[in-house]
């Protein structure tokens, strides 16, 4: 059985408990709020005791200097530890709403109060936490949970946990620019310049996954040329991303509403790269969220 170590981290209120419970359901041995200084020791001890699936949650609540995390993770990887990091975040507006609904205090409230001498607002706590975790966020895989239902987040975590050592999960993801770019994207391509099926009354209710829309878009040279150009770019640079010790590469394709053009282009690119495994295609803006294994 292959060894797998998953570190779940990120912003409070972004879904870390959901992610950790999903990993527990996948037979991972899970530890929440582990002190930063014990991460290396705990993983080494767990692996030595033949625990093949380990999941650890560390965030700004954890005892110790969270700023040391990037260096600790790099050291573990240099020693051959197969560690994957999932960094969860959400928009400030979403976090404010979630805290309002749960009526819970932010875990950094007391810490920030001790530093400033005055009770901080919830928004100040959120921004402070984002600053603390910024160095770790910049080096790891990010999932923006702002628009994700818990079931969708669990599906993403399940997919990511299946990535083995030396593999890279290639994801093609469509999105709507009017709803903002997904922060989890490594590469972003704008296809709003392409002909838009939205203005055809028969095609408008359909999506880029429907054959009628696909047939309509495939008739345009500009559509095929843009797909070819994106494919050539990815084919050239994918090997370099794989050499960068990362486990994930998310290619985001955006159009205005995330319904027709971006969906079709993401689907076509997934077909072009079907030889690469593991591979996923996702559509953020659909009424029913899709996440397919290709």
Description:
This protein has 294 residues and is an alpha/beta fold. The protein has 10 helices and 10 strands. A 5-stranded parallel β-sheet has the order 2-3-1-4-5, sandwiched between helices. A 5-stranded mixed β-sheet has the order 7-8-6-9-10, with helices on both faces. The protein is globular, with a radius of gyration of 21 Å. It starts with a strand and ends with a strand. GO terms for molecular function: ATP binding; GTP binding. This is RNase adapter RapZ.
Strand content: 15-25%
User: What assembly state would you assign to the polypeptide chains in this entry?
Assistant: single chain
What count of structural domains?
2
How much is the radius of gyration in Å?
Answer: 21 Å
Mean pLDDT: 88
Strand segment tally: 10
What is the CATH H-level superfamily of the largest domain?
P-loop containing nucleotide triphosphate hydrolases
The number of helical segments is 10
Shape: globular
List keywords for this structure.
294 residues, Rossmann fold, 40% helix, alpha/beta, 19% strand, five-stranded parallel beta sheet, single chain, five-stranded mixed beta sheet
Quick take:
The protein contains 10 helices and 10 strands. The chain is of the alpha/beta class and 294 residues long. It folds into 2 domains: 4-162, Rossmann fold (3-Layer(aba) Sandwich), CATH 3.40.50.300; 169-283, no CATH class.
SSE topology:
Layout: E1 4-10, H1 16-25, E2 29-32, H2 39-48, E3 53-57, H3 69-78, E4 83-89, H4 92-102, H5 109-116, H6 122-137, E5 141-144, H7 150-161, E6 169-176, E7 187-190, H8 211-218, H9 221-242, E8 248-255, H10 261-272, E9 279-283, E10 290-293
Parallel strand pairs: 1-3, 1-4, 2-3, 4-5, 6-8, 6-9, 7-8
Antiparallel strand pairs: 9-10
Helix pairs in contact: 1-7, 4-6, 9-10
């Amino acid at each position: 059985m292959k060894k797998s170590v998953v570190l779940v981290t990120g912003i409070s209120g972004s879904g870390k408990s959901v992610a950790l419970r999903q990993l527990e359901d996948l037979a991972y041995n899970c530890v929440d709020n582990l002190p930063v200084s014990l991460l290396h020791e705990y993983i080494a001890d767990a692996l030595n005791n033949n625990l093949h699936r380990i999941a650890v949650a560390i965030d700004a609540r954890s005892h110790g200097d969270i700023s040391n995390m990037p260096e600790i993770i790099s050291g573990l990887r240099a020693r051959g530890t197969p560690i994957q990091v999932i960094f969860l975040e959400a928009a400030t507006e979403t976090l404010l709403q979630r805290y309002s609904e749960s009526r819970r205090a932010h875990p950094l409230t007391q810490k920030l109060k001790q530093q400033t001498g005055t009770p901080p607002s919830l928004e100040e706590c959120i921004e402070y936490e984002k600053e603390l975790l910024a160095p770790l966020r910049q080096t790891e895989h990010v999932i923006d949970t702002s628009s994700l239902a818990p079931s969708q987040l669990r599906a993403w975590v399940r997919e990511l946990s299946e990535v083995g050592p030396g593999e890279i999960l290639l994801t093609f993801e469509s999105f709507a620019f009017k709803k903002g770019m997904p922060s989890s994207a490594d590469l972003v391509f704008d296809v709003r310049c392409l002909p838009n099926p939205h203005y055809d009354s028969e095609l408008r209710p359909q999506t880029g996954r429907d054959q009628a829309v696909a047939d309509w878009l495939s008739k345009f040279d500009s559509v095929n040329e843009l797909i070819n150009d994106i494919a050539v770019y990815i084919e050239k640079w994918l090997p370099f991303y794989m050499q960068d010790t990362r486990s994930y590469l998310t290619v985001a394709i955006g159009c205005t509403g995330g319904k027709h053009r971006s969906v079709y282009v993401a689907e076509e690119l997934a077909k072009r790269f079907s030889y690469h495994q593991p591979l996923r295609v996702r559509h953020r803006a659909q009424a029913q969220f899709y996440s397919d294994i290709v």
